[in-house]
Write a structure and sequence with these properties.
heterodimer, A: mainly alpha, B: mainly alpha, 2 helices, rod-shaped
């Protein structure tokens, strides 16, 4: 059996993460190239929306990742609170900026898609508003961490905030069912076939995997930076920095 | 193939500002973020080296 707790020590995790980053970064680049090829050269023009629908290939992956990263961040926060492992808090802190970036990109691409299809960049509809709340939650977690000097207290406070904020994720996901939103309902679900052409769906899924690999690579790389920043009083961190 | 020419591709059926406005900002963010993360790690490593250098100097002064 693998002793997972061995990897929960920053000292063993740092080189392991360093070896994983290039693989995920490479996978992200290859998947993104394949996804962009499908998105622009294979997927046909949409009968109703023309070429404007091609925004879907970045909008949906960014939106999904913004929600998924939040759940992973809240999960690390929960593990940190239960086991009091430093690395869990570091992972949570490493995920927040990337999650915030995807929440922003979701809103940005959504606005640019909304203008030609709905006639407006923004409406205070349940889906858009709850996604905006998600962006503020990410920013709140980062601001709270920056505001508390004692790192361990900051970690715990942020973990609680992240866990409380997790209630927003099902609200975003089900907002299009619970309320009458201008935003369309889900085109993709686990229980039925996607209501879009197979090749469009394929392009979108490849882009989702590209964003996924990107997020893992960036979060691991940022976790390494955080380890060096926080473990500056330990001898092994000095050896790693020198290497 | 969807496009008869490069100009047609860049015009995006009249939706160029929306489509390219989305893709360019996404690409820009996903280039800047890894560069910023790399700079952050290098800065942390440089700071560790500086700390170590300072510690060595103090140790050698104490020995002398």
């Amino acid at each position: 059996m693998i002793n997972w707790f061995r990897f929960s020590s920053p000292q063993t995790f740092y080189p392991l993460a360093g070896r994983m980053v290039p693989w995920f970064a490479g996978a992200a680049a290859i998947l993104a190239l394949a996804g962009l090829y499908l998105a622009f050269f294979v997927a046909p023009t949409d009968a109703q929306q023309g070429e404007s629908y091609r925004i879907i290939f970045v909008h949906v992956p960014a939106s999904w990742m913004s929600m998924f990263i939040y759940l992973v961040m809240a999960g690390w926060a929960a593990i940190g609170l239960v086991f009091n492992t430093r690395l869990s808090y570091m992972m949570a802190a490493a995920l927040a900026p990337t999650g915030a970036l995807f929440a922003f990109l979701s809103l940005w691409t959504g606005a640019l898609w909304g203008k030609p299809t709905w006639g407006t960049y923004w409406v205070w509809d349940a889906r858009l508003t709850s996604e905006l709340v998600l962006l503020f939650l990410y920013i709140g977690v980062m601001a709270l961490h920056a505001a508390i000097d004692d790192t361990r207290r900051a970690d715990k406070a942020c973990a609680v905030l992240a866990l409380v904020g997790a209630v927003n994720i099902p609200i975003i996901y089900f907002s299009v069912q619970w309320w009458n939103t201008l935003h369309q309902g889900a085109s993709v679900s686990v229980t039925r076939a996607p209501s879009m052409a197979a090749v469009m769906f394929a392009g979108m899924i490849v882009m989702v995997f590209a964003f996924w690999a990107y997020s893992i690579a960036v979060a691991l790389a940022r976790a390494r930076a955080i380890i060096l920043e926080r473990e500056r009083h330990s001898g092994w961190a000095h050896e790693l920095a020198a290497a | 193939m969807n496009w008869g020419s490069a100009a047609e591709f860049f015009a995006m059926g009249g939706y160029a500002p929306y489509v390219w406005g989305s893709y360019c900002v996404v690409a820009l963010c996903m280039i800047i973020e890894p560069v910023a993360v790399r700079a952050r790690r290098r800065a942390a490593a440089a700071r560790l080296k500086a700390l170590e250098g300072a510690a060595r100097r103090t140790a050698s002064e104490a020995a002398a």
